[in-house]
Amino acid sequence: MTTGGKGWLSCRQVLNIMVIFGFMLNYALRVNFTIAIVVMAKTLKNLTNGGAALDDGFGNETSTALASVASTTEQSVISEEDKFEWDAYQQNLMLGSFFWGYVLTELPGGRLAEIIGGRRVFGYSMLFASVLTLLTPIAAYTNYIAVVILRAVLGFFLGASWPAIHPLTAVWIPPMDRSKFIANMMASSLGAAITMPICGYLIATIGWQSVFYFTGGLALVWSVMWFLVVFETPAEHPRISAEERNEIETAIGASVKAKKPTYVPWKSILTSPPVWAIILTHGASVFGFFTVVNQLPTYMKYILNFNIKENGLLSSLPYFGKYAMAVISSHLADHLRKNGTLSTTATRKIFTAFAVMTPGFLMIVQVYMGENRSWAVGIFTLALFLNGAVTAGYLGNGLDIAPNFSGTIFGMANTLSSFGGFVSAYMVGVLTNDNQTYGQWQIVFWILAIIYIVGSTAYLIMGTGELQPWNNPPERGVNNRETEEGVPLNQQGQNNKPISASS
């Protein structure tokens, strides 16, 4: 396989493949400890048998991982000497520490990618995270505090990786193809669906340490490959063909004069209705996703006397379904935009309503039909499936309205939405603590419905696909300047010369 435009794969196709595997591994590095701790801690068995569930502080229960690996770890090779005397407090501390770092670097990571390039930020984030993952067993044998620190630093690096993709998209992917590329981020769902059973098998046959060596090793190999085959811009790629480079730069507009903004127009961003449309909708969507995924097992157990996590395939279906919807809807959205059937604004609003508002109406149906096992499972699964269409809606909208600051916008949205899991877990806990009744869960469904519908309505009112005037702000002291998409931040005027056929 070559990575040039004249080989088997174009440079953009190589980039697509690397991003897909990158996000799969990104999620694997995030959840591997959540899975392994099931058998690492001596006290966990007693806790789970008693009906208790660990929570990482953001709604991601260890009971989710436990159910996924339980069937493969019943005859595990792990000896008692390889387990740790961690109590529930220590385990929750280790699980939650990941998000201490994660929420701190979403916004800085997006801004840094705009300045030095998404390839560097995403690549180095994954490289350092893979090394930390390989060191996890050593940290575990040292002290649980060492694990707390390591997981916090791991979150610090992985938090910067997500918003870094948007600035990379802005310089590599033509505007009419960006929905399809952003759908690659949903490969994290594939990572979730695949990581759990694989890690369960490794734990049962080799030991919990193998989980970290396997995921960390794969991520390390991926990181090396990333820097070998991915480059910041088409102009910097040594193996790209003149045809592919011209095609990309002509579509993006990189051949016109442009200067990178030297500052962030924070006042314009923070007072922009389209930006807040993205933030509010993103928050509503993530809040609903966290609530459905993390609280569904509890609802099934206490209300329907059926634990959906007992069926490994059923557990994975929502993740596979969400990714499938992301790919299908993104291809359709870009097709509709490219042939002029729908404007970018109309496309983003239609798919956002489909992905976020429709699950809200499904939650209303759940209020009245949720006591029926078949209806409950079907509604929850359908809601997660439809939510995958966010890639054709608001998820890449920052690239439409302000490609120069798309990383900053996504960082803002993801920082706030990262608290969605914590808030949802707290909400369900308050409403159902010692009161696991269908009536209390109906309140949960109503809250979900309202949040989904209000969030998507905000986008329908304030959202747009039009380039914003503050995307290329005037230099300080300059009153008038032409607004253009230009080259997102990490590409300067040196790449603006015409390209000859021999370049």
TrEMBL record:
Keywords for this protein: Membrane, Symport, Transmembrane, Transmembrane helix, Transport
Presence of the UniProt keyword Transport in the record: yes
Cell location: Membrane
Xref: InterPro entries: MFS, MFS_dom, MFS_Na/Anion_cotransporter, MFS_trans_sf
GO annotation, biological process: monoatomic anion transport
Stretches assigned to the Major facilitator superfamily (MFS) profile domain: 14-467
Polar residues: compositionally biased ranges: 489-503
GO cellular component, one term: membrane
Membrane-topology descriptor: Multi-pass membrane protein
Region (Disordered): 471-503
Major location category of this protein: membrane
TM stretches of this protein: 15-39, 121-142, 148-173, 185-204, 210-231, 275-293, 313-329, 350-369, 375-396, 408-431, 443-462
SUPFAM superfamilies in the cross-refs: MFS general substrate transporter
A Pfam family it matches: MFS_1
GO molecular function, one term: symporter activity
Listed name of the protein: Major facilitator superfamily (MFS) profile domain-containing protein
Gene name of the encoded protein: 5568072
